[in-house]
Amino acid sequence: MLYSMTGFGKATAEADGVKVTFEIKTLNSKQLDLSLRLPSAFRAREAAARELISVGLERGKVDAAAAVERIGGAAPVEIDVDTLAAYKRQIQAAAETLQVPAPADWMPLLMRLPEVYRAATPDDSSEADWQAMTAAIRGALEGCMAHRRAEGERLEAFFAERIDGIAALLQRVDDCEGERVTRIRARIEEGLQKLPDVDYDRGRLEQEMIFYIEKLDVNEEKQRLAQHLRYFRETMQAPGLSHGKKLGFIAQEMGREINTLGSKSNHAGMQRLVVEMKDILEQIKEQVLNVL
After folding, report:
1. CA nearest to 22, candidates 60, 1, 52
2. Residues 258 and 169 placed together within one structural domain of the fold
3. 167 with 55, same domain?
4. Does 2 map to a domain?
5. Over the stretch 28-44, which tens digit does the pLDDT of each residue have?
6. Helix, strand, coil shares of the chain as percentages rounded to 5?
7. Angle value at C-alpha 269, between 268 and 273, nearest 5 degrees
8. pTM (predicted TM-score)
C-alpha cells in the first residue's frame, strides 16, 4: 500500500489544568526536514518531541507546532514593566511637546493601556504537561498518517491507470514488428537497386541483413519493460509504509527500456508508441515524488 508525503493532522489533549493543541503539516521531500515550534517551557523536551515525530513520519517536509493553554482556573499573569516604562516615557514626551501637564497619578492610567499584562509562562514543563504534549503529538501523527493513506489510495489509482496505459501501448508494439522488418528489408534492397552496375553476393547480403535486423530486435526490451510494470504493481501492494524511493528506481528502469525501444524502432508507428509511453512515464515520475 502507498502513503503520500502530503498530510495534515491536528489533535488536542488535556491534563492537570493544561490544554495542548498540536498541528502537523507535511509535504514531499527526499529526506525528513522537520520544523518544530514548541512553547519555551518545553524547550528541554524538544529532542524527545522530534524523535517522536521522526519515527512516526519517516520522510517529508514537516511543519509542526504546539499551542499550550492553561485551563481550569485563572491563568497566572505578569505585568510587563518594560512596556509600562515605555508608555510613561512616551506620555511624558507628548506632554512636553503639547505643553500640557503630565498625569498626577500614573498607575491607573498606565494599567489601563493595552499589552501591559501577559500570561505567565513557567520556566519548565511539568510531567503532566509533557504527558499532554505527548498525547497531542500522537493524535496529530495518527491524523496525519490517515490523511497520507487517503492520498496514497488516490496515487495507487493514478499509477494503476498509467501502468495499464503503458502495458496497452507495449502490446501494440507487436503489431509493428512484422511490418517493421519487412520495411527495413525493402528499404535496403531498394537502396541497392539504385546503385548502378553493382554486383553483390545475394547470400552474403542475406547474412548481413539478418545480422542488422537482429541488432534492431526489441524482444528483450519488451520483456524487461513488462517485468518492470509487474514489479511496479507488486511494490504498490507490498506491506509497509515507505515505497517511494523503490518506485522511483523502477520508473527509471522503465525509462531506459522505453528509450532503447525508441532508438531501435526504425518505424514511425513504433516511435509514436514510444512517445506516448514516455509521456505517461513522465506523469508517473512526477507523482512518485509524492510517495512516502
Report:
1. 52
2. yes
3. no
4. no
5. 988 899 999 988 888 88
6. 65, 15, 20
7. 115
8. 0.70
